[in-house]
């Protein structure tokens, strides 16, 4: 979180600027693709945290949409993130609410099922269009 490339979106309460309601930590990075010669430019979401009191009100969706807009502005190929398989709520949020899909380099997309099962995470992505 202290890397010089780290960037943050911070959501504060409208009535108390000291009351942080959520944050999103991201970086602009290059990620592998299934083509050995091509790297993808990504707006990579490393972490998003929403205060318990602010959940279910659209703040997480808003912050992720802002990240997509930032990615588009900087001409990134996609927004990307890592999600733990055990975090079913996050999986639903990213896939059903925001339209993310398994990235081509995610274990579940590029490995046989018996190997993919050994990983406790998946990589999700969404094009910046």
Automatic annotation (TrEMBL):
It holds the Pfam family Acetyltransf_1. GO terms for molecular function: histone H2A acetyltransferase activity; histone H4 acetyltransferase activity; protein N-terminal-serine acetyltransferase activity. It is found in: Cytoplasm; Nucleus. Residues 1-120 form the N-acetyltransferase domain. SUPFAM superfamilies: Acyl-CoA N-acyltransferases (Nat) (SSF55729). One of its GO terms (cellular component) is nucleus. It catalyses: N-terminal L-seryl-[histone H4] + acetyl-CoA = N-terminal N(alpha)-acetyl-L-seryl-[histone H4] + CoA + H(+); N-terminal L-seryl-[histone H2A] + acetyl-CoA = N-terminal N(alpha)-acetyl-L-seryl-[histone H2A] + CoA + H(+). Its EC number is 2.3.1.257. Keywords: Acyltransferase, Cytoplasm, Nucleus, Transferase. The keyword Cytoplasm applies. Belongs to the acetyltransferase family. NAA40 subfamily. This is N-alpha-acetyltransferase 40.
